[in-house]
Specification:
The complex is a heterodimer of chains A (197) and B (310). Chain A is mainly alpha-helical and 197 residues long. Chain A has helices spanning 3-26, 35-43, 50-66, 78-88, 91-104, 133-136, 148-155, 159-170, 173-184, and strands at 109-116, 121-128, 139-145. In chain A, strand 1 (109-116) and strand 2 form a beta hairpin. Chain A is globular, with a radius of gyration of 17 Å. Chain B has eleven helices and three strands, in the order H-H-H-H-H-H-E-E-E-H-H-H-H-H. The chains are: A mainly alpha (197), B mainly alpha (310).
């Protein structure tokens, strides 16, 4: 991911969302809400309010920058790897599914690794435009920006190369581990421990 | 209040002048006619109407080659890969697009995205010309003033639509005939029943054809269209498009066809023509001119010309 892309992406796109949101909040009833609250309330069960797009994009981009780390990628270790193997079969399967999912998205959006609350497992989801799994009730673990502004300067139309490079070289498994640990406080991933009487 | 007769009579005048000059009115520069019902084997991409560096310095050669050569080409390949052996095989592009839309109530069928993007892009390339921009003709300005208040008002509305389209999409200026979608009747609200120009923005691959409008011009506001040249400055891209690249001649010729298409499709007779008809009938009792009355009733040009368009 080139310097110019990051400068533009973080400095202009992300900044514009922040400025836009602040401008909206100045006269909105959502003034004083935290970002997460803005996303959940703003989503309005599928009929998003005007503040939703800016708030979600600010949150999504922040999450995205933290999901990456220079010279990282490869495969995770320990608990995360175990959980991935349990839910996807193998790390290779997960990687394939992630890439396929990213390529199947039409238009702008994001691809996520989420921890689903109901099903109590990890899953790969795609969302359009600015929709966030937070609004849908799940716990995001890692994401990738599939809006064209994220990769067009570096890869032009080759989305596959962009996603492959992300998963092989940029994704930060340390952050993923931290987020999984926090997620486990909300979702019980282990088998129930039924004591034998 | 103006009614559709204004558009009809204006187009009548023009077509009388031009019908003989342009014997073949299927303009090679036009994008594929969405009403065309031809058997086709595989969808092909229409060639660019100008060389790939013709739009410099506003849209670079690199962008055009990438956008037309690779991006649009991928859509063609994917579409051809999808339709083999399916119900869509053999349909023309426009037919495929309209029938796979699934009427918007549910998600469109898979070929829609690619078919629509191919059509949209063809339309977009033909909406531009090297050395375009400048002002529309007087006739077109008249319609713009009628429907948007002023030329600047239209530009402002267009820019607003382009800048507020969140995510990927297109912005269109189209001619909305009087037909209500999916219903073959007239609206009880009189102001619904005349053709007028509208500006609309659409997400992803949707275009106003599926709503029954006739598009006159399109601008691609997917980020791939402007990112290499303008990075994130969408406003600059749109204003440059409007000032330097847009081909008002194409818009005007599309408007003529759109009016004809709307008349033929709706088949209704406007009040002005009914009046003409009654007057002519009245006169014809004095001097026999029955032909005139029939021509006016159909809203077509005079009997010498073939109707243009489809």
């Amino acid at each position: 991911m080139s310097k110019r892309t990051v400068e533009l992406h973080w400095g202009k796109h992300h900044q514009n969302y922040v400025d836009g949101l602040n401008k909206q909040l100045a006269t909105s009833m959502f003034y004083g809400y935290t970002l997460e609250e803005l996303i959940k309330e703003g989503y309005n069960n599928g009929n998003p309010l005007p503040e939703y797009n800016n708030a979600a994009q600010v949150w999504n981009h922040h999450f995205f920058w933290e999901s990456m780390q220079p010279e990282s990628g490869g495969s995770p270790e320990g608990g995360v790897l175990q959980q991935i193997e349990k839910d996807f079969g193998s790390f290779t399967n997960f990687r394939e599914e992630f890439i396929c999912s990213a390529l199947s998205l039409l238009g702008s959006g994001w691809v996520w690794l989420v921890l689903k609350r109901e099903e109590r497992k990890l899953s790969v989801v795609c969302t359009r435009n600015a929709i966030s799994p937070l609004a849908l009730g799940d716990i995001p673990i890692m994401n990738l920006d599939l809006w064209e502004h994220a990769y067009y300067l570096d890869y032009k139309d080759d989305r596959r190369m962009y996603v492959t490079n992300f998963i092989d070289h940029l994704v930060s498994w340390h952050t993923v581990t931290l987020r999984m640990m926090r997620g486990e406080a909300f979702v019980n991933l282990g088998e129930p421990n039924i004591p034998v009487a | 209040m103006n009614d559709v007769a204004d558009d009809e009579s204006a187009s009548d005048a023009e077509t009388e002048e031009n019908a003989d000059a342009n014997g073949d009115t299927v303009d090679a520069l036009e994008s594929s006619d969405p009403d065309e019902v031809g058997p086709v084997t595989w969808i092909e991409q229409q060639p660019l109407p100008y060389p790939s560096d013709a739009l410099e310095p506003y849209i670079s050669k690199e962008t055009v080659e990438q956008h037309w050569g690779i991006h649009q080409h991928i859509h063609v390949e994917r579409l051809n890969g999808m339709i083999g052996g399916s119900e869509w095989e053999g349909m023309s592009l426009g037919q495929m697009m309209l029938s796979s839309f699934n009427e918007g109530r549910e998600a469109p069928h898979p070929p829609f995205f690619h078919a629509a993007q191919i059509w949209n892009h063809d339309f977009y390339w033909r909406s531009m010309q090297p050395g375009g921009g400048s002002k529309p003709s007087e006739r077109l300005l008249k319609f713009i003033k009628r429907d948007f208040g002023s030329y600047d008002g239209m530009i402002q509305q267009f820019m607003d639509a382009a800048l507020t389209q969140f995510g990927s999409g297109w912005v269109w200026l189209s001619y909305k005939g009087s037909k209500l979608p999916h219903v073959n009747s007239r609206s009880p609200i009189p102001s619904d029943n005349y053709g007028r120009l509208v500006i609309s923005k659409t997400p992803n691959a949707i275009n106003p054809l599926v709503w029954g409008h006739s598009p006159l011009l399109a601008i691609d506001v997917w980020e791939h269209a402007y990112y290499l040249d303008y990075e994130d400055r969408r406003a600059d891209y749109v204003s440059t498009f409007l000032e330097k690249l847009l081909s008002w001649e194409t818009v005007e010729s599309r408007l003529k066809k759109a009016v004809i298409r709307a008349i033929e499709r709706d088949g209704h007779v406007s009040r002005k023509h009914v009046r003409k008809q009654l007057l002519a009938q009245g006169k014809s009792r004095i001097r026999a001119r029955p032909q005139q009355a029939n021509e006016n009733a159909r809203g077509q040009t005079s009997s010498q010309e073939k109707p243009l368009g489809v």
